[in-house]
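Figure S7 source data.
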Amino acid sequence: MPRITVGVDGVTYEEEVEPRLLLVHLLRDRLGKTGTPIGCDTGNCGACTVMLDGRSAKSCCVLAVQADGSEVVTIEGLARGQEWHPMQTAFHTEHGLQCGYCTPGMIMAAIDLVRDDPDPSEEAVREGLEGNLCRCTGYATIVRAVRRGAREMARGETGARTPPETGPPPETEAQSGAGARNGAEARNGAEARTP
Ligand code: FES
Ligand code: FES
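Tokens for the predicted FE2/S2 (inorganic) cluster complex:
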């Protein structure tokens, strides 16, 4: 089986993987990153969105072997120590979620969107997140959250709300360098960026 090296949330993993293994299954089933949900497994819902070498990607559309040498950031790696990312705080403040199933992917896609458009209009948010589906909210609060998050990211806000105690804080330093960019066809983001 192929052996891959992949950085996930600042930790480097070496894994033997079947060539058919999807990145989302590597994350969830092998690495325990269950904060990244699976909604459809067919690239339609966006629930599984992560950052792959700084760009948002639907991890059910990327083979694990395509992530060899790459850096992945999941929703579990967004906070810095005890401080949420501003986009996480904005979703909390604006009640941009109900069941929360779409939320990890929404937040990752939103960060990607804002890096392209630091002050997105409502229309731009709706268009930019059209690959991420929500069955609960009706999207109005999500749009408000993304626009608030964009403003706070522009101001350099730290998102200084303490996250709930769901586990140890993420590593703050990546332990391996970003490698070759793989799986570009599966990405739903635009330009290279980091969360
Ligand atoms: S699980 Fe729906 S797009 Fe990946
Ligand atoms: S909050 Fe339930 S699917 Fe979006």
